[in-house]
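request received
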Amino acid sequence: MRQKLIQILGLGFTALYALAIVWLYATEPRSFKEVATGAQVAAGTYQVDQKRFDAALELFRREQFRAARTEWKSADPAQSDPTTQFYIAYSFYREGWGRVYYDQDLFKQSLEAVNRAITLAPEPISVPDQNLQLHTAAELKTELEQGMERNWGDLNPLKVMRQRK
Amino acid sequence: MSEELEKTSDDLTIATAREVVAVDNRSRNQALVSYWALPTTFLTVALLGGLRVGVDDSAFIFFAPPLITLVLAVLLMLLFVRGGLVELRLWIAANHPPLRNVSHIWVLLTLFFASAQAFNSVLPERGLLHWLFSFFFLWTLWNNQFSSFDARRLLRSLVVLFGTAFVLKHLLLASLYASGGGWLQRVAGALVQGVSLGTLDAPMFAPATGYISFFTLGLYIAGLMLVANSKQQTANSRQGIQNVAASDC
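response:
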């Protein structure tokens, strides 16, 4: 009986250990800190650092987009919070927006972040921030995709009158 | 006379009880080794075999086992069976309880992945050297399939095989491509690169990678020694049972 117990417990423990190894190779964390963060995400106990998030939002409103992104990345190291990823995408969009042309590289990064946000969110993201004109991830994505398209309308001189959202 | 008999009878009872306790302890320890220590050891080898440490930021880099290491692991498993380190008939049999068979299959599976990762640990990650090392491993294992081996000889052969590959990769090649070396080292590195037209290029890792690989290989060999030891103990206990049966007859 005792031997059977040892067998069952051994099988259970080593199966869990094997799953952890597969998870490590699948997620490829780069440090022990990332391992801990990943474990929190897997366990469902992960939360963004609210202080850093608020600080980033403050920087974003002062148009310090790069600094804001640095803070948001620290607030959400696992890139698992849809709202934070939405704001990161928005900061790339605002930084890349220009009256004459759009910075394609920044728009591309913005699109990656907004896609990440859409994938992470269990339901459509809606951010009730009065400072923003695009409140949903779908709207932001459409705006970015339109900005990345090339057509004859780009030559229209009246385009300099357009407004950043 | 009757007192003497009683005393002798008591002694016999005590001796039997001790034997029972010893047998019980032995079987419990064997179970702990078979169902806890062995899979845990081999899984740790599977974890660490593909782990490298980046030279710039000391970040973990996980290298999944390349396909060739799986082929090498299959050959090595065949060698284990041929060399008698793993006696498949004793490990998996129709008359065993299902749980025991499942546990043994699980140990074999962990041994397979540990073998693949042990190769992964000593194989250069890319370039011509990766294929040269793979070829030599393949050649050695293929040749060994047709040699006569016992478990002890097989273990010695594996220590030499992995030891040589470890020295070549983590000592010789690592020092050849190290960025912080002296001018002679840099000239030698540049010459090797030039002569081989850049095909001997190998990625650079932090020295910690070598230590991890050393620990991994040590653990792998220790695991194999545990397998050999548990096999020896099983053989001894079977011999003991046969002796007792013969003396009863």
